[in-house]
Specification:
430 residues, 13 helices, globular, single chain, alpha/beta, 28% helix, eight-stranded mixed sheet, Urease, subunit C, domain 1, TIM Barrel, 24% strand
Length: 430
């Protein structure tokens, strides 16, 4: 009897898992597809009205006006909008499923200076959190390790895959460095004031970082007798093959970070956060430093900051002539689905709408080094795009009718949409 009961419970478990399983990844594109009569938002600041877009074998082959010849299956998108797939930088998507569940948290590794830790091999392509990004048009992301001083190496993936190998768009694209802060929050549990206190170890911590960077550079210049994994992982920074993502917010921290790291010979330095970047735009421009600015839905750090400081910051940096992308690395993974609405909020506070769109499309692609294939709608680039019923930066009208990754017509159903359909029918009496 107990044996029969065990089989019964196993059967129920299987049924439950099937009922709420991950959406099956789409197969490769088989025939040409044409989208007609849409408003195309290219992702470089331009718009094409009554656009005809054709893609074959996963690539965009034709992009033009209403007179453009169609091919294959024709999708009439009259009154609708086409966008390139949105890109989410600096996230631990696929590395952590439930914050409170330690068993599903694989975003942080033991150690402080661990650039050799590769996030891509831990990426879970079947994550239900990753799945929930697609209905809002977020089709690509940077899988990023967290914690420590140097957290590890990130990779860029697309969000419709069987496994991490299928998902990978660009492996080991960059290394992530949490620059020391000149101030820190008081530790209330140790009796310290609950406010900002000077970090007395700031200079010591900076020296530790730069010693590591310089030693890694020296390791690459000489034939080392013994292999050093962390130093070996840093070599792409000096050759220009990888990017260094530096997380810093204060004026002094930003100046110290970009000047010291550039002087050390690192080719591509990306500022992430940049709360006070507007104070040092001349330095950032001179050293060609792009900024992945923090998301708008956050409170000002200091009491004397404007209440709308975070809302205005993207426009301030764009107006200063910097290459600006948008990220929410410090927020929970599930909040990444709000990425287009952060851009919409930047537009609401003065940034021209198509420039706001660039923050999460063309600019993010350029900063991450994947703009040769993603981020904009252009002939020869990947057909990674979606059709929205209306303005994709407005949560009221961001309603996807089709989503395409590398030419594959993917599902944008999720665990959440399945539950919505299930219970809406119940309460409608169906």
């Amino acid at each position: 009897m107990k044996k029969i009961q065990s089989y019964f419970y196993i059967l129920l478990l299987c049924i439950a898992q099937v009922g709420f399983a991950q959406q099956t990844p789409a197969g490769p594109q088989k025939t040409a597809i044409s989208i007609t009569n849409a408003t195309a938002h290219v992702g470089d600041g331009t718009i094409i009205e009554n656009c005809t877009l054709v893609f074959e074998d996963g690539k965009i082959t034709t992009l033009g006006g209403a007179e453009t010849t169609t091919k294959g299956e024709v999708i009439d998108a009259s009154g609708k909008h086409i966008y390139p797939g949105f890109i989410a930088p600096g996230k631990s998507l696929g590395l952590i499923e439930v914050d409170a569940d330690r068993a599903s948290n694989d975003q942080d590794e033991i150690g402080s200076l661990i650039p050799n830790i590769r996030s891509i091999i831990a990426y879970n392509a079947e994550s239900k959190v990753v799945e929930s990004m697609r209905p809002n048009g977020i089709l690509l992301g940077q899988v990023t390790p967290k914690g420590g001083r140097i957290s590890g190496t990130s990779s860029i993936v697309q969000f419709d895959a069987w496994n991490w190998e299928d998902a990978a768009v660009k492996t080991d694209d960059g290394i992530h460095l949490n620059w020391p802060g000149t101030y820190r929050r008081g530790r209330w549990w140790m009796g310290e004031p609950n406010g900002f206190l000077p970090n007395k170890k700031y200079q010591e911590q900076v020296v530790e970082v730069m010693d590591f960077v310089n030693n890694a550079k020296a390791y690459g210049l000489a034939a080392a007798e013994q292999y050093n994994g962390p130093f070996a992982a840093m070599q792409g920074l000096f050759s220009g093959e990888q990017r260094l993502y530096v997380y810093a917010n204060g004026e002094k921290e930003i100046i110290d970070a970009v000047t010291k790291l550039k002087a050390a010979g690192i080719t591509h330095v990306i500022l992430v956060g940049g709360y006070q970047a507007h104070k040092v735009t001349d330095i950032l421009k001179a050293k060609d430093i792009p900024v992945l600015v923090n998301f708008t839905h956050s409170l000002p750090y200091f009491d004397d900051d404007d209440y709308d400081y975070t809302y205005k910051l993207p426009k301030t940096l764009v107006d200063a002539g910097l290459t600006v992308g948008l990220q929410n690395a410090s927020a929970s993974n599930f909040q990444t689905r709000n990425l287009p609405f952060y851009a919409g909020q930047a537009a609401a506070f003065g940034l021209e709408k198509e420039k706001a769109l660039q923050l999460i499309t063309g600019n993010n692609a350029k900063i991450l080094g994947i703009d040769n294939n993603y981020g904009t709608l252009a002939i020869g680039k990947s057909a990674t795009l979606f059709i929205s019923e209306g303005d994709a930066l407005d949560m009221r009208t961001n309603q996807l009718s089709r989503a395409i990754i590398d030419g594959r017509d993917i599902s944008h159903e999720t665990h959440q949409t399945e539950l919505w359909k299930r219970y809406s029918k119940k309460y409608e009496g169906k």
